[in-house]
Amino acid sequence: MAQIDAFFKLLNEQGASDLHMIAGKQPYLRIRGDMERVKYNVLDNDELKAMIYEIVPEDKIKQFEETGDIDFGYEIPGLARYRGNLFDQKYGIGAVFREIPSVIMSCQQLGLPKVVTKLASLPKGMVLVTGPTGSGKSTTLAAIVDEVNKIRKHHILTVEDPVEFVHESQNCIINHREVGTNTKSFAAALRGALREDPDVILVGEMRDLETISLAMEAAMTGHLVFATLHTINASKTVDRIIEIFPAQQQAQVRSTLADALRAVVSQTLFKRVDIKSRVPALEILICTPAVRNLIREGKTYQIPSAMQTGKKYGMQTLDDAIMEMLQKKWISPEDAYTNSVDKSKFLSYLRKPPADFTEV
């Protein structure tokens, strides 16, 4: 048993999402979104380095000493997996660990809308799950892939950095590939994927032009591609993909994306005020013919209006999802106001003026 395992057990017992271990500071846990100090000694740099190096693969240690930061995975059998990021900072070494539960929750257990569950039945195309860091994108994607695993008899290929949720084959064959360990890069894995007979491809993160281009190509050649992006809503997601390409290619990319994209699920995580838990608010864009035309014609600013009128297809805006949770008294008016798009809808719920004076 590694020395650091005791902290992972504490993380699990406290229901925290992240563990922060920084040289010169005490350890911290992120519990329901807030940082909480652990009652422990201030971490000495050499002591912390020895503790972390005990669980980091040798090739990753070499990479870290050359570059100053790495991602890696770690697992405690019977407890959970952990996604770690190791980095150099001013006062020494630092590491942040995110807990990845060993049990994958279903779409129903997560309370996801039925239309999200139905995405697992799509024959082909691209489905994007977006949101800020720590918003639960990986958990939502894992639930959708788990649904694919139950209802289809196909080959699922995942490309991640590092591998997070580990799926056991049910009706599907599942292969997990980790960037840096099993493949050189996301792009290299996607190039290879087209020769590996997959039906469903999960891309852990679309980070660059080449990865995005290859993911769209896979979606256009009959594969169902799931991927994540760090964007805050559906229309910004479309803009982000198009804008990463050179200006002279953007008209063609709009056309390709309009044909390839099937749905965007953009989520924001909220702290529950009625129970000790967190809950996601989902913005859902389904690519109907009308939405495809907006993407093709460069009218992404009209996508929020299309979502308002497309509720019968399962679409919803972030503000509608937030309002529903606020009216159920699951979240605070302050959180609702802070994370909403049209803040005027939520002003009347506030007990005092908003804290962010720049938004007034």
Question: Can you tag this structure with a few keywords?
Answer:
alpha/beta, 14 helices, 360 residues, seven-stranded mixed beta sheet, Rossmann fold
- Using DSSP, what is the number of strands? 13
CATH class of the largest domain: Alpha Beta
Helix content: 25-40%
Distance between the termini: 53 Å
**Which CATH architecture of the largest domain?**
3-Layer(aba) Sandwich
CATH superfamily label of the largest domain: P-loop containing nucleotide triphosphate hydrolases
In the CATH scheme, what's the topology name of the largest domain?
Rossmann fold
Secondary structure tally, helices: 14
SS-based class: alpha/beta
Instruction: Write out the strand line-up for the largest beta sheet, numbering strands in chain order.
Output: 9-8-10-11-7-12-13
Order of helices and strands: HEEEHHEEEHHEHEEHEHEHHEEHHHH
Outline: globular
Mean pLDDT: 93
The total number of structural domains is 2
**How much of the residues is beta strand, in percent?**
15-25%
Low-pLDDT segments: none
The largest pleated sheet is described as: 7 strands, mixed
Rg (C-alpha, Å): 21 Å
Please provide a written account of the structure:
- With 360 residues, the chain is α/β, with parallel strands linked by helices.
- It is built from 14 helices and 13 strands.
- It has helices at residues 5-13, 45-53, 58-67, 107-110, 114-118, 137-151, 186-193, 209-220, 234-243, 250-260, 289-296, 303-309, 318-327, 333-339; strands at residues 18-22, 28-31, 34-37, 69-76, 80-89, 92-101, 125-130, 155-160, 173-178, 200-203, 224-229, 261-271, 278-286.
- The strands form 2 sheets. A 7-stranded mixed sheet has the order 9-8-10-11-7-12-13, with helices on both faces. A 6-stranded antiparallel sheet has the order 3-2-1-6-5-4, with helices on one face.
- Helix 8 (209-220) packs across helix 10 (250-260).
- It starts with a helix and ends in a 21-residue tail after the last helix.
- The relative contact order is 0.09.
- The model has no long low-confidence stretch (mean pLDDT 93).
